[in-house]
Amino acid sequence: MKGAVVWDTPAQYLRGVGPVRARALARLGIATAGDLLQHYPRRWFDRSSLSSIRSCQPGHEVTVEGEVLTASERRISRGRTLQAVTLRDDGGGTLILVWFNQSFLLRQLRPGLRLMCSGIPQAHAGRLQIAHPDWAVLDRGADHLHTGRLVPQYPLTRGLGQHWLRRLIHDTLGPVSADLQETLPEALRQRQELCSRAEALWGIHFPASPLERDRAQKRLVYEEILLIQLLMAVRRRGLAVRAGLRLERPGDLTRRLVTSLPFELTRAQRRVLAEILADLRSGRVMHRLLQGDVGSGKTLVALIAALFVIEQGWQALLLAPTEILAEQHGANLTRLAAPLGVTVETLTGGTAAATRRAILVSAGRGEVDLLVGTHALLQEVVRLPRLGLAVVDEQHRFGVLQRGRVAAAVDGGQAPHVLVMSATPIPRSLALTLYGDLDLSWLDEMPPGRRPAHTHVTPSEQEAQVYESMAAILRDGRQGFIVFPVIEDTAGSDLRAAKVEYERLAAGPFREFRVALLHGRLSAREKSAIMSSFASGSCDLLVATTVVEVGLDVPNATVMAVYHPERFGLAQLHQLRGRIGRGAERSDCWLLVDPWVGVEARERIAIFAATHDGFRLAEEDLRRRGPGDALGVRQHGEPGFRLANPLRDNAIVKACVEDAGALLAQDPDLRDLEHRELRLAVERGLTQPRPAAAG
Description:
alpha/beta; Rossmann fold; globular
């Protein structure tokens, strides 16, 4: 490209990228050179220290080097294929490398090539093998970036390879780091013993030693958390002075709803409602996060809060991340609120144009008490002239930096109160860090009568027995789910796909039942019709992807089978399992595990099967996978968790809280020259919208 490469240089104009690869980089959230340099390795292979194959022990990760002796393929069950490569090192030891449904590898891994690979060997049929290893061909062109050192391994997407991305990052890092502005004040860096920003970027991507990598990681983690703390502190300071609606007069709607319920509110629900109502009466605008496990009654709490606002002449808005969840909320809230004379309308992308126009007109006239819709409502011309409360469901998908947009739905005057909810339990350490601008409420008690689902870890070869058990339960009038991680078969993937399996299941093991297919590529109208059919009992078995993770509340559903559970996070599995066990009947969830799944993944699945506490599972997910992966969030375009893990980095979190407070006490607006880069970073975080989460 022409001109110097700097932090903000568009990725398309980096050497060797161009429009096609720029689109692939964009799928990873990489739009600029700076984004590229903040696309950190997920791990490093120590290729400076090789193991001999004879010394390899099952269950212990190794890096080995050797010559490809044979490369072959054979067919296995259900038309799938297995690729096997025999590797022999200079000491005469042999190791089998295996892949599934990746025939193209045989064109790359030919006999005679020298190969370096890393993975966790397992004993199989008396020999050691590594399933799906990371590998590199050691031809004469191999250089210091790919072997003989700590070699970074990056998250990839289709169309990009490790070697190419590694080289691009290296070649971009040189010119950018030469003129890189320091973010942290010098005194702060010295006190915390942190390396420079440029040193940290070199050390995280291409460390000369584990010590250098750890120093780099400490610096970058500190910077991430400090920026979050400053951002939250500035936001909280702004919210503290904003006037909100002061709602004093207790009304009759909330009392009538509570007395009409066939159960009593839990102590936790009553405590949280007291906290929310105190906010609504305070005269300050409420910004509160409501945390609770699956089935803890968050939506009912939100409805009671909305009724408190509605009965005093104001309107309420409830936003959900998906159309399925919005439709579910709309149906449930209408059922509860309509007998009280409260007008509830639901607006999604699937709403007919004429109906949409009528709802928007009614809402603009103040005739709709509670408007339910997706987050897309914030992008539309939706006017609620007397909006008193906005409830945002599934906050982690909504995005930290979009909270302020709900105020745009008001024609003017005082800002509405905001209640955000997370259906995915978030550990306290993460919630306190990521949502430091919000007051936190915790629903830590489940309603009486909830029965945890019995969770069974079952080899996938025993699927026939699982089907028999499920069919027997369906014959008793119950309903169930079979969940797959992907919609369609993909070349090179060993994952079973929902479309193909739906046809097999509907025509075979479950042909006597009414079976439907639900996935994210269906139109909104199709998804709504299938969901309604299942909810009404007109469908016995739903073959689905994770589109059912939230939004389906069918007490009659008592059985579930999940294929490839190792592909899901613990929090996501917990959400899936939460679709059953919502009634008084026994529920069963089968996790079908393939024989080649590794030891670490099996340990994680066993933890899930033994635990029903969503917060414990979320904490384990956070410990193992990091906050971005665990929550399904891509922190692009704002200070976020690219490397930081509040559970692991608790000591750094505490230091950042203290340092952020001291910085703002000394320089409230960060106007000192040495704080300029920090101020610019915080301002970017306050103003830049964040793209939707990947996937």
